[in-house]
Amino acid sequence: MTDSDLIVMAAPNGARKTKLDHPNLPITPDEIAAEAKRCAAAGAAVVHIHVRDEAGGHSLDPGRYREAIAAIRDLAGDRVIVQITSEAMDQYTPDEQIATIKAVKPEAASIALREICPSPDDEAVAFAFFRWMKDEGVWPQFILYDAADTERFKAMMNAAHIPFAHPYCLYVLGRYTPGQISAPADLDPFLAAMADAPPHRWAVCAFGRGEAACVKQALLRGGDIRVGFENNMMMPDGQVANTTSELVGLAREAGLATGRRRLDAAAVRAKTSDWIG
């Protein structure tokens, strides 16, 4: 499903990077909230957040998520949709990922298909969880890492195991590897695999300096975009960005240049009930 409307998402921190990677990487709830507010002002309708434990490591602790969400609401109000992650990072089982989302019951959540449902033995639990998300009005984004993930997700849609009217996918163009630079052609296998899929919405994220070119390709082909320090800290000219909000501003401008109509958080909320179904 292509759409002239555009959703710009910000991913300001991720699970791996630290202040050593960039001094402005937001880690604490107050830092995350301040960056979420800047990203909303720059054009992001959704902010995708990770939280950390006391040592700075990846965490799915529900209390930490609630604290970060409360800080964002205090500072930015409802001007941005907060999407939490269930990323496993080889630390959390599918059951633990599901338990976090159920405990927090956020407005939106991203779930990696291969992590929430790593094998056929996990499918019954995952499918029941997807129905819970639908019933509770939690807007999911399904993270797909390659064409094999995409084919598997399409099969689930065709079998009616994905119960949403317009499922939302994030195509990850590349890998978390040192020096990774994504390329626009990385999008082709995803779109080819999903060409005959049921109605759905999709977005991309990309790594390194190639992010801007991948953003443009997604915009031209009808997708949404996610930018930010989780995957990339570089401006198109090779300079290091000061904040994720700078990258959001560039993405917003690129959307305008390609004739896409950017949706703010209120406009996205008005559509999500139809997308959830």
Which key phrases capture this entry?
277 residues; alpha/beta; TIM Barrel; 8-stranded parallel barrel; two-stranded parallel sheet; 10 helices; globular
Helices, strands, pairings?
Elements: E1 5-6, E2 8-10, H1 29-42, E3 46-49, E4 51-52, E5 58-59, H2 62-76, E6 81-85, H3 94-104, E7 108-112, H4 113-116, H5 123-136, E8 139-144, H6 147-158, E9 168-173, H7 188-193, E10 201-206, H8 211-220, E11 224-227, H9 244-257, E12 261-262, H10 265-276
Parallel strand pairs: 1-12, 2-3, 2-11, 3-6, 6-7, 7-8, 8-9, 9-10, 10-11
Antiparallel strand pairs: 4-5
Helix pairs in contact: 1-2, 1-9, 2-3, 3-5, 8-9
Question: Can you characterise this structure?
Answer:
The chain has 277 residues and is an alpha/beta fold. It has one domain (5-276): TIM Barrel. It has ten helices and twelve strands. It has helices spanning 29-42, 62-76, 94-104, 113-116, 123-136, 147-158, 188-193, 211-220, 244-257, 265-276; strands at 5-6, 8-10, 46-49, 51-52, 58-59, 81-85, 108-112, 139-144, 168-173, 201-206, 224-227, 261-262. The chain has an eight-stranded parallel beta barrel with strand order 2-3-6-7-8-9-10-11, surrounded by seven helices. Strands 1-12 form a two-stranded parallel sheet. Strand 8, helix 6 (147-158) and strand 9 (168-173) form a beta-alpha-beta unit. The radius of gyration is 17 Å and the shape is globular. The two termini are 16 Å apart.
